Structures are given as structure tokens and as C-alpha cells.
Amino acid sequence: MPIGLIWSEHFAAKLGIFANLPGVIALATASQKGGVGKTTVCINLGHALARRGWNTLLIDTDPQGGIGLSLSRNTRKKRGFYDFLMAGGNVRPYILPTRLPEFSILPCGVPDAFLKAGRVDDAPQKIQDLLRQCDILGYDVVLMDTAAGLTGITEVAVRTADWVLIPQQAEPLAVRSVPLLLETLARFRSEGSQVRVAGILLTMLLASHEASLKVARELREMLPASFLFNQAIPRDPLFLEASAHGLPLGLLRKNPPATALLFDQLAADIEERTGLNTRKDQLQSHASLLD
Ligand SMILES: Nc1ncnc2c1ncn2[C@@H]1O[C@H](COP(=O)(O)OP(=O)(O)O)[C@@H](O)[C@H]1O
Ligand SMILES: [Mg+2]
């Protein structure tokens, strides 16, 4: 791309000109309950998207810092999302690189001061500014891992996001909680939020248990087919092993286990649903396999 064009696109994005420029896509998780696999999905999906070439930033908006706890105990002491919400300014110094150049993490930081000050009022502007900075920094995707429930900062993150991904544990209560969550999201949209549902992702599915499969079946019968992702994440002890090593599943073995590949499929599905796959150099010219 000619250098002048890069300059003008970035400058235009900064000024909010050409609103239809392909900017960063912000995807937040949402669920009423904790322990449904939100953080696990974010880490593994973030890794899969990065492996597929997207510049991906994973933001931990959960004050309990699930991402830090899963990946590295050290991130606890690092400044991050909540420090940015307090102070504003340049977010770049808070972003941690990973061993994959395309994958970066904004840890939750130290939430105490923010939570004590209770300054949720200007959080929407701060998160919008954060996403604008991510755009200028060249990120393609921002994944926001959230705390359970749709209140406080989680509510702000979801309202500000372009897309919401709903991890849903394959357990009987799901059949009641999913419609409630969807109604809340519909209310956010009626109040001006542009957030769209990327899909519902069944997690912790026990294929050997009829009760777990029944939930999956009931949800598929209850909702339009497009609401549920084709992939379902099985209950797999490998997640505990990966988390003990501070790794996404894909980095646990030289040859990634089958469950890790599900996140690759999920990433491909999300690329299609969000239009990411129509971007950039995705439409490559077809060279023949043999010359
Ligand atoms: N598919 C799964 N199979 C087995 N264990 C899982 C799975 N997903 C998550 N876990 C484990 O369950 C616990 C809660 O998951 P987590 O991702 O932290 O949930 P949340 O972020 O929704 O609170 C963690 O110990 C995690 O390692
Ligand atoms: Mg979590």
C-alpha cells in the first residue's frame, strides 16, 4: 500500500472521517453466570484469531482478573484496563505483548481505585477512546472478557462492543437464562447500542451425558439456527492443564489437541459472521498448487 494512503486512512480514522472504513471489530463476552467458560473461550479464541493473522488484543475487563490468573500470575501487579479507566491517556504502555506478534493482552490492572471512586459515568467515553486507540494501533479484533452479569463495567463494555459472544454452559438452567440475556441485549439496542449478537457458544458439553446433549438439542429447537455456533466446546480436562501452564490449548502440545482446533473453526465462523473475512488481503489470487 502506498505510504500516503496509510497516512490518510489513519488520519481519517483519527478524525472520525470515512466512518465506513474497516475499523477494529470489538467483541465482548456476556453471560449471567460466572464459571461458564468466558475467560477460557477468550484466551483460546484470541490465540486462534491471532494464529489466523488478525492483530488481536484481549482485554480483561473483569476486576477479578481471570485472564491474568489463567496466563500469568505476574499480570496481577501490572497496570491495565482499570488504570486506563481511571487515568485515560495513552493505552499503549499498558498493553503486554505475547510470544505471538499478533496477540497482545491488556490485563485488568489494579481495579481498587476505580471501583472505590465508582466512576462508571465516564466509562463509556473511556472505552470508546480505548477502541479508537486500538484502531489507530492497527488491531483488527479487540476481545473483551467480562465479569458475570450485565451490570457495571460489563454492561458498558457490551453496550460499546460491535458484537457479543455468549458462552453458555450446557446445563438445564441454560434454557431459561438464554432468553433473558437476549432480552437484555435487545433492550440495550433499543436504547441506542449498536451491539449485535455474534452467536451463542455451548461450553462444557459432555457428549457422554444425555442431560448435557438434551440442553444442546432444546436450545437448537428454541432458537433460530443462526443463533448458535456450529461448534460446541466439550468439557475437557486439558483446559485445566493448559491453565496450569498459563497457555492456550493450542500451545500445550507440538501438535495441538482436537479441542484446540475447535477454536480455529470458531475463529473462522466469527470471521464470516462479522465480515472480517471480507477485509484486507483475504481475497487472494488463486495460485496453482503445483507450478
Ligand atoms: N470446556 C471446559 N472443560 C473443562 N473445564 C473448563 C472448560 N471451560 C472452562 N473450564 C474451567 O472451568 C473454570 C471456569 O472457567 P472460566 O473460563 O474461568 O469461566 P468464567 O470466565 O465464565 O468465569 C476454570 O477452572 C476453567 O479452567
Ligand atoms: Mg472469567
TrEMBL record:
Residues 27-191 form the AAA domain. This is Chromosome partitioning protein. PANTHER family: P-LOOP CONTAINING NUCLEOSIDE TRIPHOSPHATE HYDROLASE, PARA FAMILY PROTEIN CT_582. InterPro entries: AAA_dom, DNA_Partitioning_ATPase, P-loop_NTPase. It holds the Pfam family AAA_31. CDD domains: ParAB_family (cd02042).
